Amino acid sequence: FSKNILVPRYYWKSYEEKRRKDALKKGIKFIPVRDLIDQNIITSFDGHGSPASANKGKGDMPYIRVKDIVSWGTYKDSTAMVPSHLYEKFVKKEKILFEHDILFVKRGSYRIGSVAMVSPYEEKMILTKEIQVIRHCGKENEFGITPFFLLYAFSSELVQKQIQNKVLIETTLPNIGNRWMDLELPLYEKSIMHSISKKVEDLMVNKRWQSEKDIKDLASEYGYITT
After folding, report:
1. CA-to-CA distance for 185 and 182, rounded, in angstroms?
2. What H or E segment, with its residue span, contains residue 67?
3. Cross-strand pairs, 105
4. What tens digit of pLDDT does each residue of 62-97 get?
5. Phi first, then psi: what are they for 205, rounded to 5°?
6. 158-167 in b/e burial notation, b at 16+ Cβ within 10 A?
7. The model's pTM
8. Which domain range does residue 152 map to?
């Protein structure tokens, strides 16, 4: 046993061995998330906390919960928005969100492993503690990993299938805890890494975020819009 984990499923390695062997045949290698942290390619911190229920639906500051991480984006539920003064209370300087941050669900049923990317228009919001923030440190690296590749990699089948053996039940809720750092991200040839990054970047910047900007511009001109 290791890491004080007594659940046998955590130690079933047959799938892991088959995954690596099958991937190697396709020229795919893997690197643990923990190694990326150690090499200062990425850094991470957990979410901000949960405002009292009495504040929800009484403001315009987005409060993002596990269920709001949808399709690589964040859903702004008007019934969960809180007064803006709570932002200063919950979001300390070292936990301010930046564009391109990855939001990873680490606790909460089947949603564990869902990811989103922070857009240029939503850096100011409050995250529940069940969401982990993963940040690319901004420097070039030998692997060709970018924020957009991270978004793809965490969503890929090769990573999502690893999550099952790393999620354990704590009291009544499934939780991956810090074991998300043991996930192994796929690494491809540099040209493929670049191609994946550019395709995801085009999707996010020129489609998703552009429409988000258009909606914000419309709202600023004619008034608040619920989407």
Report:
1. 9
2. none
3. 131
4. 999 999 999 999 999 999 999 999 999 999 999 999
5. -75, -50
6. bbeebbebbb
7. 0.91
8. 8-222
